[in-house]
Write the structure tokens for this entry.
Amino acid sequence: MKVMNKKIRASLGRERQLNASLKSANQELERLNLTLESLVEKKTEQLRKAIEDLRSMVERDPLTGVYNRRKFDELLENLIAQQNRMSLIMLDVDHFKRLNDTHGHQAGDRVLMQVAAVSEEVLADNQYLARYGGEEFGIILEGVDLDKALEIAESIRNSIQSHHFSVRDIPPGHVCASLGVATFPGQAQDVPSLIEAADKALYRAKENGRNRVEVAEV
């Protein structure tokens, strides 16, 4: 009987040791799982940010942060391919070369950044601002007719004129812009003709005294 009890106690002892080992192993496994989940989550976030940064480099103008010419062309081509009604505004900062020559290129860069920011404040979610080149910007207004496009263009023009630019020696009202407006399909049949129509309206705004909005001729 004593021998039997001794064997039972030994067996129970081994079982307790085994249970303790299993418990310890399970705890370690849970810890490793939590560590692995944390690492996966961290790496996923790093990958997501890297993709966002890469997309931003491809799609965004590095100075102003708005869409670049490449993204502008892509958006415009996609909307017209879908035959979506839309309007296009081409915007050019008036006397920008003189501003650069007088106040320096750094001041000119700050003006462009603030022109972009002021213009974006006027736009809705389905309206896209892009730096087309130099001091010229393109604004795509998805689903917007001519009357509404003119209203938006005038609001942008007025916002730029009345904005207090945080650039030394540039008083309020000194920075202005000219804008040209065209619509699709009313005044154009494809991307080149739409851009050309809006550009011609922009140049007419320049010729007629600047700091104004003009509409493309049919």
Observations:
- Residues 69-215 form a domain with the Alpha-Beta Plaits fold (CATH 3.30.70.270).
- The CA atoms of residues 88 and 140 lie 5 Å apart.
- The mean pLDDT is 87.
- The chain has two domains: 1-59, 69-215.
